[in-house]
């Protein structure tokens, strides 16, 4: 029986195809972006803009479609991720190898296990304090906060229940967020 050779971040960087990520030592194609996914991503990015604005609530680098090299064989691409500027004063060059302070995955059909199990376990190992899941088809957001023994749900929100009612969601609770602006 032949041993399986795990792929590394270097193997990933040599690929010409940009729509791939490294999960468990395997280079996999990222799902084709659907309209609802892209819309949720761009609306979340715009809604959180004041936190990334140097003159506003600030204090964050918030980026979309960013690859993070957590380990030799783990370099997923996150829909949105944020680093507090106190931990990351300057934006990095190339693939970042510092765990974010917040990650948001927009759940893609056919990739639910990766988005809801594999990635959260990786983030938990690397002590990422905040993790959001957005389900565009269900118009729902579930926010998780890291505790000693793993993630716990800190908010479960549905657009239908919070229509035009501002909410405060960690780690961005300094500002009321319009959930409908993200999920509708």
Automatic annotation (TrEMBL):
Per its UniProt record, what Pfam families does this chain match?
Uma2
User: What superkingdom heads the lineage?
Assistant: Bacteria
- Put simply, this protein is called Putative restriction endonuclease domain-containing protein
Coiled-coil residues: none
Domain Putative restriction endonuclease intervals: 14-162
């Amino acid at each position: 029986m032949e041993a399986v050779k795990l792929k590394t971040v270097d193997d990933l960087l040599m690929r010409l195809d940009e729509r791939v990520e490294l999960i468990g030592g395997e280079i996999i194609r990222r799902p084709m972006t659907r309209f609802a996914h892209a819309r949720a991503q761009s609306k979340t990015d715009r809604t959180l803009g004041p936190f990334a604005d140097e003159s506003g609530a600030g204090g964050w680098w918030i980026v979309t479609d960013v690859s993070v090299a957590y380990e030799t064989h783990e370099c997923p691409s996150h829909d949105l991720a944020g680093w507090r500027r106190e931990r990351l004063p300057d934006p990095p060059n190339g693939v970042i190898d510092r765990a974010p302070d917040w990650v948001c995955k927009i759940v893609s059909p056919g990739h639910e296990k990766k988005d809801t199990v594999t990635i959260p376990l990786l983030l938990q190992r690397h002590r990422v304090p905040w993790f959001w899941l957005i389900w565009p088809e269900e118009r729902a957001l579930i926010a998780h906060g890291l505790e000693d023994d793993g993630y716990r749900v800190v908010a479960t929100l549905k657009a239908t229940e919070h229509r035009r009612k501002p909410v405060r969601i960690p780690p961005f609770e300094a500002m009321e967020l319009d959930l409908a602006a993200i999920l509708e």
